[in-house]
Write a structure and sequence with these properties.
Distance between the termini: 21 Å
Number of strands: 9
Number of helices: 12
Strand content: 5-15%
Order of helices and strands: HEEEEHEHEHHHHHHEHEHHE
Helix content: 25-40%
Shape: globular
Radius of gyration: 19 Å
């Protein structure tokens, strides 16, 4: 069954339901809504340190939101002009009109946003599901991507960790509803502790303030009529992407990525296996690898300073090689449902691997925007611990 075949909350009904609570916005951040054909995206941003900085876009994982990048974004505001997007159905973004939560559907949303904003090429970041989404974007629209930074990207594994199986089971029809019934007595605090234990290498890194903010966010999202539907259908989209073969498979698309790529893996990741780091470093043409033995699934939240330092090295090397790089126009303006758009470059590849960041060798939509301003002073480094599942 495809990700658009199962029952879902009709978009008109979902849009008519008042949003419960308010999404957390850290001090210095701004949250705005961007209308695009067939979807509306919530976008989080911070003012850049100065005018003229190159653009960056951050894409979260399954069950996450743009808040997952609130610890990293201020550390890079002197290097890039960053925005973080809520994928359709997550964070403050409503479900997409077509109900497509596949990896390709999410990639299409990112592409439409970048095309509408005219911000490409961008420094593109992705975590987990967001790593799969941004890999697909980079493969089919190289004109949009200057560099690619992947934190625990969700790429197919032959031997999935047992701790990741419950997340994968959400893809099965009826499992989300069953899980909802079985856990209806769970408090938001219990749910947050469970997610934190799954996603953090050391849950003790979450501050009391961050835990309280996460509980409030969990309470908010549990009231959304489409929350479990978006979770289940996005999980199904990941599983479907794992089973695609040939040129549409994620590993084959990773081979086609032309942008310099930073790969970040955590040694205590219970969702994406640490052992996949070496294969990823061999697959992405121009790659460098940072391994963090004590990190879990969300290194940009657990060790934002380390992630920022590794990106700055990538950024400096890329700018030194191509200070005024302009990419040629792409041959296709968008991505098809099955992910077939884009070139099938067959150039030879080379890569690097290791335990620290090292240099690798190169182997028009329209939009409408409404704004809301930040008024929170909550520490962005820990506020969104409830928001990562895969």
């Amino acid at each position: 069954m495809s990700s658009s075949d199962s029952p879902r909350v009709p978009p008109v009904i979902a849009a008519a339901v008042p949003k419960p609570g308010t999404v957390e916005v850290a001090e210095g951040e701004r949250l705005r809504s961007v209308g695009l054909p067939g979807l509306t995206l919530s976008v989080r941003s911070r003012p850049a340190a100065r005018d003229g900085l190159p653009p960056a876009l951050y894409v979260h994982g399954l069950g996450g939101s743009s808040q997952n990048w609130s610890a990293l974004m201020p550390l890079l505001e002197d290097s890039v002009d960053g925005e973080a997007v809520d994928l359709p159905g997550f964070g403050d973004s409503p479900p997409p009109d077509d109900g497509d939560y596949s990896v390709t559907g999410h990639a299409r949303a990112v592409i439409r946003f970048l095309d509408a904003r005219g911000r490409g090429p961008v420094h593109l970041f992705g975590n987990s599901l967001g790593g799969a989404v941004t890999t697909r974007v980079a493969a089919v629209r190289p004109d949009l991507v200057r560099t690619l930074t992947l934190v625990s990207p969700a790429l197919p594994e032959l031997r999935v960790q047992r701790t990741a199986l419950p997340t994968g089971l959400l893809a099965l029809p009826g499992v989300a509803a069953l899980f909802t019934r079985l856990t209806k007595e769970w408090t938001p605090e219990q749910r947050v502790r469970g997610v934190t234990a799954l996603c953090y290498g050391d849950p003790g890194r979450v501050s009391p303030e961050g835990f309280r903010a996460a509980v409030e966010e969990m309470e908010r999202r549990l009231q959304l009529p489409y929350f479990w539907d978006a979770m289940a259908r996005s999980a199904r989209g990941v599983v479907n992407a794992y089973t695609l073969g040939g040129q549409h498979g994620l590993w084959r698309q990773a081979e086609r990525v032309l942008a310099p790529t930073l790969l970040i893996y955590g040694g205590r990741d219970q969702l994406v296996s640490y052992r996949m780091a070496a294969r990823a470093a061999r697959t992405y043409r121009d790659s460098r690898l940072l391994t963090l033995p004590d990190a879990g699934h969300v290194a940009m939240m657990e060790y934002p300073e380390r992630v920022a330092a590794a990106f700055r090295e990538l950024f400096a090397d890329t700018e030194a090689l191509n200070p005024q790089r302009d990419r040629a126009p792409a041959t296709a303006p968008d991505i098809t449902r099955d992910g077939t758009a884009g070139s099938t470059d067959s150039a030879a590849r080379s890569s690097t691997s290791g335990t620290s960041s090292t240099n690798g060798t190169r182997k028009s939509a329209t939009s409408t925007t409404t704004d809301s301003t930040a008024n929170s002073t909550t520490d962005g480094t820990t506020k969104s611990t409830t928001e990562q599942g895969s």
